[in-house]
Every structure is written in structure tokens, then in C-alpha cells.
Write a structure and sequence with these properties.
Layout: H1 16-34, H2 40-78, H3 83-101, H4 130-151, H5 157-181
Length: about 180
């Protein structure tokens, strides 16, 4: 049976991949043209709102770290023998609080439209049993790490990186505390 050579001709015209790339580029250009800055006041208001939301998120993260620091202090006050294991973790939580508080006003100025500030949280107490106290700290670290991981989705890039880093540290703290409580 004779073999027939396959023609080696190139197809004329653009290839499928280049057509798809061109179509995607054109669609992107259309979308971008629809996003032109027709009202600069709207973009300024949006930027102000984003900055305000980021400030609130940063303030909340600093407050949450402060509350976690209070939990560490309560456990250390009730169980001073745990200081060797908990002091390094407590020091990290204190650094996290300082990192979130950086750039925040010392005390928010009250405004007429703002609702009254909630009453400060009661001082945390620690269980009488050392292992239970450490388990409670681990749970608090784990929950706060989860909250921060969720919050970073809506945060601006720099704050999201800080939240992610602190959430990872909190998860590591929870793991270390869980291992200590065994």
C-alpha cells in the first residue's frame, strides 16, 4: 500500500489562541473605558470610605490583640509557673497590638453622629487548672486567627499582609499551646 505524504501547508489566518487573546484584550479595553473617572468626587469619597474602613479594621485588630493580651495576663497572674512557656507568646501578642495600633490616633474623637462607645470588656479570668487555662488561651488564639483570616479579604493590601501574618502567628500560638496542654 502506498503511503501518501501529509501536506505540510500552514493554515492561513490567525490561530485560535491569538483570536481568544485578542477578544479578551478587546473586552478588557471596553470594560476599562466604562470605568473612566467621570466624577472625581465619587472616587474621592470611595477612597475616603476605604481608608475609614481600613482604619476601623486596624483599630479593631489592635483592640482584639489587647483583649488577648489581657487573657495572657490573667493566666499568668493565676498561674505564675507558666511564665516560662507563655511569656514569649505574650510578647508576640503585645508586638501584634503595637503593629495594629501604629498610625492610629491615640483616642478616637467623639462625634455627634457616632454611637456611644461600648462599655469596656470585663477583665478576663483564668480557670484554676493550668491545663484548662492553657486550653482556653489556645482556643482564643485559634478563634482570633480565624477572624483575622476572614477579615483580610476586605482589607487593603498592606493591612491584609499584616492580618495574614498575625493570623498565621496566632495559629502557630494555638498549636504550641495545644501541644503544651496535652
Amino acid at each position: 500500500m502506498p503511503s501518501y505524504p501529509i501536506p505540510s501547508r500552514r493554515l492561513s489566518g490567525p490561530r485560535r489562541r491569538s483570536l481568544l487573546t485578542g477578544a479578551a484584550g478587546a473586552a478588557g479595553a471596553v470594560l476599562l473605558s466604562g470605568c473612566s473617572d467621570s466624577t472625581s468626587s465619587t472616587s474621592t469619597e470611595d477612597a475616603d470610605e476605604r481608608a475609614s474602613a481600613a482604619g476601623r479594621l486596624r483599630a479593631r485588630a489592635a483592640r482584639d490583640s489587647g483583649e488577648l493580651l489581657g487573657r495572657y495576663d490573667a493566666v499568668l497572674a493565676a498561674h505564675p509557673a507558666l511564665a516560662g512557656r507563655l511569656d514569649p507568646l505574650r510578647a508576640e501578642v503585645k508586638r501584634h497590638q503595637a503593629a495594629f495600633a501604629e498610625g492610629q490616633p491615640a483616642s478616637p474623637s467623639p462625634s455627634a453622629s457616632a454611637p456611644s462607645a461600648p462599655a469596656p470588656a470585663p477583665s478576663p479570668s483564668a480557670p484554676g487548672d493550668e491545663k484548662a487555662a492553657v486550653r482556653d488561651l489556645a482556643k482564643a488564639e485559634r478563634e482570633l486567627a480565624g477572624q483575622r483570616a476572614s477579615a483580610l479579604l476586605d482589607a487593603p493590601a498592606e493591612l491584609a499582609r499584616l492580618l495574614a501574618s498575625v493570623a498565621a502567628a496566632g495559629a502557630a500560638h494555638a498549636y504550641l499551646l495545644t501541644e503544651d496542654a496535652k
